[in-house]
UniProtKB/TrEMBL annotation:
SUPFAM superfamilies according to UniProt: GroES-like (SSF50129), NAD(P)-binding Rossmann-fold domains (SSF51735)
Region described as Disordered: spans on this chain: 1-20
SMART domains, per database record: PKS_ER
Boundaries of every Enoyl reductase (ER) domain copy: 8-349
Cofactor(s) listed: Zn(2+)
Membership in a protein family: Belongs to the zinc-containing alcohol dehydrogenase family.
Keywords attached to this entry: Metal-binding, Oxidoreductase, Zinc
Keyword Mitochondrion (UniProt): no
InterPro entries: ADH-like_C (IPR013149), ADH-like_N (IPR013154), ADH_Zn_CS (IPR002328), ER (IPR020843), GroES-like_sf (IPR011032), NAD(P)-bd_dom_sf (IPR036291)
Any Pfam family the entry gives: ADH_N
The keyword Cytoplasm is assigned to this record: no
Protein name: Zinc-dependent alcohol dehydrogenase family protein
Organism encoding this protein: Arthrobacter jinronghuae
């Protein structure tokens, strides 16, 4: 089969590799019908994620068709259309039993990290993928949900909702500011309304992204390139700051923006993937009673979000900016990596 292979920092290729095989009775083999590219894949290609070794097939998002199941797979059969979660869960370890699938201790060399596709084992940017713990890591794609919308549930919708909205403890009436209006920041914006946010402020350096964010539910936009960006945000609050500030970029400057706009007793939810340490002004912040949260998505809300997408309650279509055939994945990477010029959000790849 063909697959997108990481060849070391800055290097990737679309090439022939052996077809995946069943290793464990709980495995399934899935033919990928739709996949996409994540900002995390770009981090890996920069060499920011050393756990990914050369030769690894990238990708952790996918919708596909089951072509083979191990003898221990009971919930799925050949021909089933499935959504693959970016987090693999054996369903039986102590973390899985607590719903903390992100720290599944299964047997796939996870070492307590549930994100293994395109990280610790071969991923979904391929014609076929081996799915460990298929019964507890795959979700049936309903007939009334398209593959393109289904693939948004592998990662971005659960990540935005769980790490931004739930960990940020958004409450009815809250003012929520989301720093970074890329795909995951937009997923936070799109799901903040579920918990009753009154104002949702999109903050980005890119004027186009700030404007586009309104289609996802942002009520206000602030360009962080403006000298008075902070004043603009404070003017949208009661003067004390936002209730919830969500970091969806992954650099120290945007994290510090969050701690500079949150009200006393408010929440800072870090969603971005950072490549360097971030300093924390504890000497200033301790007296503000601020909660700071962070984490790897669990995808334990995937089924709930799927129901909302099936009923048209979330702006799934708005996330899709480009479509390519899977064989054109190198072009798709080029488009996605130049998002400021191409206005790329989610780049859909179809087999
Ligand atoms: Zn587990």
């Amino acid at each position: 089969m063909k697959a997108l292979v990481y060849e070391g920092p800055g290097q990737k290729s679309w090439k022939d590799v052996p077809d995946p095989q069943i290793h464990d009775p709980r495995d399934a083999i899935v033919k990928i019908d739709t996949t996409t590219i994540c900002g995390t894949d770009l981090h890996i290609l920069k060499g920011d994620v050393p756990a990914v070794t050369p030769g690894r097939i990238l990708g952790h998002e996918g919708v596909g068709t089951v072509t083979e199941t191990g003898s221990g797979v009971n919930a799925f059969k050949t021909g089933d259309k499935v959504i693959l979660s970016c987090v693999s869960a054996d369903g039986s370890c102590s973390f899985c039993k607590d719903g903390l699938y992100s720290h599944c201790t299964g047997e796939e060399g996870q070492s307590g990290i549930g994100w293994i596709f395109g990280h610790l084992i071969d991923g979904t940017q391929a014609e076929y993928v081996r799915v460990p713990y298929a019964d507890t890591s795959m979700y049936r794609l309903p007939e009334n949900v398209s593959q393109e919308h289904g693939v948004l549930l592998s990662d971005i919708f659960p990540t935005g909702f769980e790490m931004g909205v739930q960990y940020g403890q958004v409450q009815p009436g809250d003012v929520v500011a989301v720093i970074g209006a890329g795909p995951v920041g937009l997923a936070v914006i799109a799901t903040s309304g579920l918990y009753g946010a009154a104002k949702i402020i999109a903050v980005d350096l890119d004027a186009n992204r700030v404007e586009q964010a309104r289609k996802f539910g942002a009520t206000h936009g602030v360009n962080s390139g403006d000298e008075n960006w902070r004043e603009q945000i404070m003017d949208l609050t009661d003067g004390w700051g936002v209730d919830v500030a969500v970091e969806a970029v992954g650099i120290p400057a945007t994290f510090e923006m969050c701690t500079s706009i949150v009200r006393p007793g408010g929440n800072v939810a870090n969603v971005g993937v950072h490549g360097t340490p971030v300093s924390l002004e504890l000497d200033r912040l301790w007296i503000e009673n601020i909660n700071i949260s962070m984490g790897l998505v669990n995808t334990n809300t995937l089924s709930m979000l799927l129901k909302l997408i099936a009923e048209g309650k979330l702006p799934a279509e708005e996330f899709i900016s480009h479509r390519y055939s899977l064989a054109d994945i190198l072009t798709a990477y080029d488009t996605f990596s130049r998002a400021a010029e191409t206005n790329a959000l989610k780049v859909i790849l179809q087999a």
